[in-house]
Specification:
It is built from ten helices and 18 strands. It has helices at residues 18-29, 55-60, 91-94, 114-127, 177-180, 248-258, 262-265, 310-329, 336-366, 370-384; strands at residues 8-14, 34-37, 52-54, 70-74, 76-80, 86-90, 109-112, 131-133, 136-143, 149-155, 158-169, 192-201, 208-212, 223-229, 232-240, 269-279, 288-289, 292-294. The protein is globular and about 70 Å long. The structure holds flavin-adenine dinucleotide.
Length: 394
C-alpha cells in the first residue's frame, strides 16, 4: 500500500520575523535541518514597527548594515519631559572621533525598513540552508511517543503535516504556539501598549531618535519622532489603555496639534498610518514545553521600558539557534525538562536584565502621583540611553 511521505526536520520555526529568521539561520549554519514557515506572503507587511535598532545589535549577529534595508543612520537620542525640556545624548558630540558621517566614523544605530529587513533576514536563513515556506500557517502540534512531534501546517490552501524534533514558536505578540502547549501567554491589558504612528513628510529631523515622555502626551508609554530617510519622519506613540479613556489616535492628534512640537509639525502631511501592540511586560515565566520553545515577542522578549523588541528578538534567536544545535547534536530528548536549559541560558545572557528593567518599570507606575511618574520615567529613559548605562547592550 502507498504510504504518505512525511517531511522530517530537526527544527520547525513558526514565524519569520527577526526572532524566527535568526533562530533558523543560526541553527542551519550549525548543521541542523531547519524548516521556517510564515503565514504571510510578504514578510514584514503591513509594517507594524518604527524600525529603530542599534548597530551593536546587528554586529552581534554578523549582519552587515546595508542600504538594502536601512532608511537612516542614527547618532543618538533626545529625551523630552512633558514640558519640552530635553536631555540630548548625541554621540557625534560625546565621541566625535568614533561617531559621525565622515570617513572612518560610524553611526550608533539605524532606522530600518521592516519589510526589507525581514526579507533580508529570511534570505540569510535560506542561504544558510533553511527551507522556507511562505504563505504557510502553523495550525497545531502534537508530541509523539518517539520523542519527536508532528507540526500541522496550512501551505497555501493545503493542510500538511511535518515531523520535527523541536518546534520553535517565533510567531510574535499574538503567539498561538505557546497556547498549543498550554503555556501561560496571557498578557495583562495594563501591560500592553497600544501604538500608532504616522509616516509624515515635511518634518525636519537631525539623526537623533526623539522620545517625549509625560502623561499628557502618552500615558504609560511615550511619543516619538524618528527620522525615516528621504526627508520623511515617523511620529508615533504608545499608550496604556487602562490608564486613560482615550485611544492612541486621540493622543497622537493632541501631540501633533498641541505639544511643544506643534509649530514644527504644522505643515506635516500624513503619508502612511501604522499601528500595533507592544508588550511592556515581563518575559514569560515558562518559555518551553515538550518539543517546544518560544522566542521573540512570543516569549515577551521585549524591553519593558522602551518597548524595543528587534534587538532582543535577534539575540533571542541567536541563543535559541545555538542552544538547539548543541542540544540536538548531543542527542538529548527534547522533553520540557531538558529544554528548560534554553530558558536558563537566555536568562543568564539577557533575561535577568530584562526582569530588572521590568521591576524598574513597575516601580515607576506603582505610584499614583502622576507628576512623580512622569519625572521618574523621564529620568529612567534619560539614564537608560546614556553612554554609561548598564543596559546599553539591550
Ligand atoms: C508601532 C510599533 C513600533 C515598534 N517600533 C520598534 C522599534 O523602533 N524598535 C524595536 O526594536 N522594536 C519596535 N517594535 C517592536 C518590534 O516590532 C517587535 O518586538 C519585533 O518585531 C518582534 O520580532 P518577532 O520576530 O518576535 O515577531 P514578529 O516580528 O511579530 O514576527 C512574527 C512572525 O510570525 C508570523 N506568524 C504569526 N503567526 C503565525 C502562524 N500561526 N503561522 C505562521 N506564521 C505566523 C507573522 O506573520 C510574523 O511574520 C515596535 C512595535 C510596534 C507595534
Amino acid at each position: 500500500m502507498h504510504k504518505t511521505h512525511i517531511p522530517v526536520f530537526d527544527i520547525v520555526v513558526i514565524g519569520s520575523g527577526p526572532a524566527g529568521a535568526t533562530t533558523a539561520r543560526i541553527a542551519a549554519q550549525k548543521g541542523l535541518k531547519v524548516l521556517l514557515v510564515d503565514k504571510r506572503q510578504e514578510l514584514g507587511a503591513p509594517i507594524q514597527c518604527s524600525g529603530a535598532v542599534s548597530r551593536h545589535a546587528l554586529e552581534e549577529l554578523g549582519i552587515t548594515p546595508s542600504e538594502e534595508f536601512i532608511h537612516e543612520d542614527i547618532y543618538g537620542f533626545s529625551i523630552y519631559n512633558q514640558q519640552g525640556d530635553k536631555t540630548e545624548i548625541d554621540y557625534q558630540r560625546i565621541k566625535p572621533d568614533e561617531y559621525g558621517k565622515g570617513e572612518g566614523k560610524k553611526p550608533l544605530g539605524y532606522v530600518v525598513d521592516r519589510r526589507r529587513f525581514d526579507r533580508y533576514l529570511m534570505a540569510q536563513a535560506e542561504r544558510a540552508g533553511t527551507e522556507v515556506w511562505l504563505k504557510t500557517e502553523g495550525l497545531g502540534y502534537q508530541p509523539l511517543e518517539d520523542g519527536t512531534c508532528e507540526v500541522h501546517l496550512r501551505r497555501f490552501n493545503q493542510e500538511i503535516t511535518v515531523k520535527s524534533k523541536v518546534l520553535v514558536g517565533a510567531d510574535g505578540l499574538q503567539s498561538q504556539v505557546g497556547k498549543w502547549a498550554g503555556l501561560r501567554t496571557h498578557i495583562k491589558l495594563s501591560e500592553l501598549a497600544s501604538c500608532l504612528q504616522f509616516i509624515v513628510d515635511k518634518v525636519e529631523t537631525d539623526g537623533l531618535l526623539e522620545i517625549v515622555t509625560g502623561h499628557q502626551w502618552a500615558p504609560g508609554g511615550y511619543a516619538w519622532v524618528f527620522p525615516k530617510g528621504h526627508g520623511y519622519a515617523e511620529i508615533g506613540l504608545g499608550v496604556i489603555r487602562t490608564m486613560t479613556d482615550q485611544n492612541a489616535q486621540w493622543y497622537l492628534d493632541q501631540f501633533i496639534q498641541k505639544s511643544f512640537f506643534k509649530e514644527r509639525f504644522k505643515d506635516c502631511r500624513i503619508l502612511e498610518i501604522q499601528g500595533g501592540g507592544v508588550p511592556l511586560a515581563h518575559p514569560l515565566k515558562k518559555q518551553y514545553a515538550d518539543n517546544l520553545i518560544l522566542v521573540g515577542d512570543a516569549a515577551r522578549h521585549v524591553n519593558p521600558i522602551t518597548g524595543g523588541g528587534i534587538h532582543t528578538a535577534l539575540s533571542g534567536g541567536r541563543i535559541a539557534g545555538t542552544f538547539l544545535s548543541s542540544f540536538l547534536k548531543n542527542g538529548k530528548k527534547p522533553t520540557a525538562k531538558n529544554l528548560k536549559g534554553y530558558q536558563d541560558q537566555w536568562l543568564e545572557e539577557l533575561g535577568n536584565k530584562m526582569w530588572k528593567l521590568y521591576d524598574e518599570k513597575t516601580n515607576i507606575f506603582r505610584t499614583k502621583d502622576i507628576a512623580r511618574q512622569d519625572e521618574q520615567l523621564y529620568n529612567t529613559m534619560s539614564s537608560y540611553f546614556s553612554p554609561d548605562s548598564e543596559y546599553k547592550k539591550i
